[in-house]
Amino acid sequence: MAHDERLPNRECKNCGEEFYCEYQKKYCSDSCRNECLSSEGPSARNDESKTQLTDCEFCEVQFEYYPSAKKGLYCPTCVEERDWRTTPDVNGADNPRWSGGKVEFECEVCTETVERYPSEVTGEVTVCGEECRAKWLSESFAGSGHPNWEGGDNGSYGRGWNSARQTALERDDYECVICSKSKGEIGRNPDVHHIVPVRAFAESENHSKTDAHYLDNLISLCIGCHRKADFGKLSRSELRSHVESRPTPPLQ
């Protein structure tokens, strides 16, 4: 009952008998269901009596197919032997994502004309190759173009620099104080780095550039460690701690 009304009985899809069920059900019993869904006989989905005839669009020979499947177009022989699949053309303007193709640009370095897809031009500069890219990087990130630029150099390091540099190299045994790379491994003498930059002394009213060359302010570094120090990846306190651990050279 629902809302004081009796629910109608259901009709078995197989035998046609009416039966009662509280939920939607097609068959009155398991035997009717199994009989209707049998894989054999007229009730089977692939029973040969359910096939239809049609003409092959290639050879016009009649063949059978199941209407429950796709509409028959080609006979089994033509499916195997003929080129019936059409491959879509997705080249150039026929591609659904076509946006106009390559565009001509002028190389920022050598002014040669280069072709690039718009999606490839994502940087601030367009160059024709690695050689021009390297040249552009060298010119653009030097001097005022460098992200750590603070007003340029202060010219010569002044008197006493060559002597102070040589003393620092001798104290540090001509090796990087941080990673211990020797002069032979580096391929030349290590760089001598000012822990407190020369420009800090040059800009001070009470000091001169030569005041930056005292030995405790100098440290020998390989190219890689020197770069880390310049970019702040090695702190001044860390550099000083390495200098303090070095033996003091004898007085000349």
Description of the molecule:
- The structure is a single chain.
- With 252 residues, the chain is of the alpha+beta class.
- It has helices spanning 30-36, 76-81, 130-140, 161-171, 183-186, 198-202, 223-230, 236-244, and strands spanning 10-11, 18-19, 52-55, 62-65, 103-106, 113-116, 191-194, 218-221.
- The strands form 4 sheets. Strands 1-2 form a two-stranded antiparallel sheet. Strands 3-4 form a two-stranded antiparallel sheet.
The total beta strand count reads 8
How much helicity do the residues have? Answer: 10-25%
Assign the structural class, choosing from mainly alpha, mainly beta, alpha/beta, alpha+beta, or little secondary structure.
alpha+beta
C-alpha termini separation: 116 Å
Order of helices and strands: EEHEEHEEHHHEHEHH
Count of DSSP helices?
A: 8
Strand percent estimate: 5-15%
> What's the average pLDDT?
80
> Globular, elongated, flat, extended or rod-shaped: what is the shape?
elongated
Tell me about the largest β-sheet. 2 strands, antiparallel
Q: Which radius of gyration do the C-alpha atoms yield?
A: 43 Å
- Residue ranges: pLDDT <50 for 5 or more in a row? none
> In which order are the strands of the major sheet placed?
1-2
Task: Name its key features.
two-stranded antiparallel sheet, 8 helices, alpha+beta
A few lines on this structure:
The protein is an alpha+beta fold. The protein is 24% helix and 11% strand. Among the domains are: 34 residues, no CATH class; 32 residues, no CATH class; 84 residues, no CATH class.
